Amino acid sequence: MILYHGSDHIIEKPVFGEGKPYNDYGRGFYCTEHVELAKEWACATGGDGYANRYQLEMGGLSVLNLNTPEYNILNWLAILLENRKFNVAEGLPQRAKAYILENFKVDYKKYDIIIGYRADDSYFSYAGDFVNGTLSLSDLSEAMRLGKLGEQVVLKSKKAFDALTFVEGIKAPREEYFAKYKQRDEEARGKYRTIATKPVAEDATYVIDIIRNNWKNGQGI
After folding, report:
1. 147/155 Cα distance (integer angstroms)
2. b/e per residue, 45-80, with b = 16+ CB within 10 A?
3. Mean pLDDT for the chain?
């Protein structure tokens, strides 16, 4: 697998065990299969950057792909709730967080590689609104289906880090890619506003319905 990591500097040897613990899937090395997206991430703070290109030897690595049919959007959300910092209000949002963590949690820490949505910027607001009870399950799923460019590949284990080989650092000039980064975020937020302001369907399922009906993992979500 060819992977790219956007950064403001060249990273020839990622260090296992470093990184922020409150990223989407905890500590790990976060990559994408798309060089253009990596360049945007590299310039996200407004400076020049690099799309670090790597080759990952997949043989013998265990992979959790959250976008396969055996998993659902609530499995992804449970992992996010465990790792990211949410402002969860008292009452229903707290109950929702506890319920999702209890009933839709995935044993993701045993895998070498995780493939799943990237909850950055607008994606993160979708998840928060669902937990707070203002976004339906179907609208959350629709909002997250904004294309493959929203996916990331995360190296979690030392075994995965050892299977990664640096190839090159590709320059990403801020003049081009910071604007693209901002445009992508604005478009995503615009799509979200369209989804969030749709008329409420009578048969829409909200987090309170999931709790009331005692939904469990694998119930055809």
Report:
1. 21
2. eeeebbbbbbebeeeebeebebeeeebbbbbbbbbb
3. 89
Q: What pLDDT does residue 97 have?
A: 93
Single-letter code of the amino acid located at 12: E
- Three-state SS at 170: strand
Q: Considering the entire predicted model, what is its pTM?
A: 0.88
Sign of CA dihedral 57, 58, 64, 67: positive
**Which structure tokens are listed for 193?**
């506003």
What's the order of all strands across the beta sheet hosting 164-172?
Answer: 2-7, 49-56, 164-172
Burial class of residue 96 (count of CB atoms within 10 Å of its CB; 0-12, 13-18, 19+): buried
Per residue in 150-203, pLDDT (tens digit) is 789 999 999 999 999 999 999 999 999 999 988 888 887 787 778 777 777 778
Report the alpha-carbon distance of residue 6 to residue 157 in Å, rounded. Answer: 20
**Amino acid of residue 185:** D
Coil, strand or helix at 95? helix
Secondary structure percentages of the chain, helix, strand, coil, to 5 = 40, 20, 40
Which run of H or of E encompasses 65? strand 63-65
